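User: I'm curious whether this sequence folds into something compact or stays loose and floppy. Could you predict its structure so I can see for myself?
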Amino acid sequence: MATRTDPVDQPGGSSISQAGELRSTRIEALRGVAALLVLEGHVFGWSRHYEPHAIYGSFAARALLGGGFGVFLFFALSGYLLYWPFARRDFADGGAVDLGRYARNRALRILPLYYVVVVAVLVLQERFGTFEQWWRMLLFAQSFSNRTVGRIDGPMWSLVVELHFYVLLPLLAWALARVSARSPARGASALVVLGLASWATAELTRGHGLTWRYSLPVTFVYFVGGMLVAVLRASGRERVLRLPGVLRGADAWLAAAGVLWVVVFWNYRLEALMAVAGLLVVGACVLPLRPSALFRVLDTRVLALVGVASYSLYLWHLPLVEALVRRSWLPHGYWALLGVATALSLTVAAVSYLVVEAPFLRLRRRWASSSAPTAEPGG
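Assistant: Here's the prediction. I'll summarize afterward.
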């Protein structure tokens, strides 16, 4: 059963166990929602064979394809969850961050499943692939070549970005602390400047290919929203933010995020607004605001369980969707494909989590302060 945890580490609602460590049900549910959105977007694209007029020709089509923007919610969550211990250390009264444990946790979180999926996809989908595919995928170098970027297993481009963020975050956190002189306002301002620089880089390199589009300099802006939430929470702790009237409610933050999603569906060129939407969604869930009625959905165990296995769901779903599409005897309409692909992907994700992810995640407890289940915000 999920139990209540320390509100300093868990921002609200109940908790759920992930390989012996307690996680916020609400945060895991957000992961689940992000993964399901990406799955839905890919299903829609494949059901329309990615024909431009079919996937971009109407607002409804762009909205259905836009589920793929769920990846930016993952980035916002990573920005918040991973920067939070550093923000608490630098802008509040948190303790030191054990960088060795940080590195081991990140490695155990992403590497085992990544390599299992890489081998399976190269052997089964690519029929053992090419030498270049193998070395680039194994070394996380696929995003540096037009021959491999966004190919093999499309969503893996974001893991390269995440890995770069993991490696640079401790240095970035140190630099922010020095530049801001440990002032939350200055730290937030520095993050906004970095976010704007990332957005400018995206605009300047637009049309220069996927090697730029799928890089950390271009996508860093989507991490900034979550990092700003970490700074806000560190500066405000558990007291209610000093916001006027309706803005103190999480409903207003979520509604504003919804409006931004609609604007982006209207014009994909405005996708940078997803960075602000990510800030609003994550902030609504973790900052001391008046709770939203939507939290009754996000605090449900079913969505949280999807979130616990969301990494497996994220990596396996596209090869499965492509395999289903290649079966001519299966219905390829959007709704039929969505139903079959969702059921199959969730089943494979559950098995993958139990067999591959969980055993390695349990190893992280060896570096915990005690052998008891811990309450940590990280993924």
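Summary: The chain has a mean pLDDT of 89. Residues 247 and 259 are 15 Å apart (CA to CA).
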